[in-house]
Design brief:
It is a single chain. The chain has 1 helix and 8 strands. The protein is mainly beta. The protein has one domain: Porin (Beta Barrel). The protein has an 8-stranded antiparallel barrel. A hairpin with a 5-residue loop joins β4 and β5. It is elongated and about 50 Å long.
Length: 200
């Protein structure tokens, strides 16, 4: 419980700091259509799917993710249903396992993202990618502490201002050691996240 409280407090101050930076230096002409980059903080809940694939252990997590996105293109497909922009997302995740004695996972992810830009106030997106995790779960079924993750999901951003958005996100999240050690029970999870984004 103490670790969960510290995570919530840290998240609050991270969001508040981003908002102060944004208020001090934001260019109100920047939108999701013209921004070069994006900063975001997300938090939420994850739960593993027992008996999905070889997953047997229930793991519930409180997730906090710091994200930096870099847009790789201007708008593509103007006027079509798929009008949007390519974005490369880098993430620093912290997963607190609330039903595993407060143990945690930390690492880094690299994700490809497509942002649909047809609407003014709503920005749907899809993403996929992966990364590495240091897993301190104490589960003998996982075999090693250095693990790998792949994931994919979808989200929706609601523009509060031209350059600030609230977002809701779902992702499927897989963790395993990729056969580098035995045993190798994977953790296949769903994660539901809320966040705030600042377009720069």
């Amino acid at each position: 419980m103490k670790q969960l409280s510290m995570t919530i407090i840290t998240l609050f101050f991270a969001i508040r700091s981003l908002m102060l930076i944004d208020n001090a230096s934001a260019d109100q002409s920047i939108t999701h259509r013209t921004a070069k980059s994006e900063l975001a903080v997300l938090t939420g809940y994850g739960i593993s799917h027992r008996y999905f694939g070889e997953t047997r252990t229930q793991v519930q997590t409180w997730d906090t993710i710091a994200r930096y996105g870099f847009f790789l293109s201007d708008e593509i497909g103007s006027g079509s249903w798929y009008q949007g922009r390519h974005e490369l997302l880098t993430e620093l995740p912290y997963h607190l396992a609330i039903d595993q004695g407060g143990r945690s996972m930390v690492g880094g992810y690299l994700l490809g993202c497509w942002k649909f830009t047809s609407w003014e106030d709503l920005v749907p997106y899809i993403f996929a990618g992966g990364g590495i995790l240091f897993v301190d779960m104490g589960l003998p079924s996982m075999g090693t502490s250095l693990d790998f993750s792949y994931q994919g999901g979808t989200g929706l951003q609601y523009m509060l201002r031209k350059n600030v958005a609230l977002q809701l996100e779902y992702r499927y999240h897989h963790i395993s050691n990729a056969g580098t050690a035995s045993p190798n029970e994977p953790i296949n999870s769903s994660k539901f996240l809320l966040g705030v984004s600042f377009f720069r």
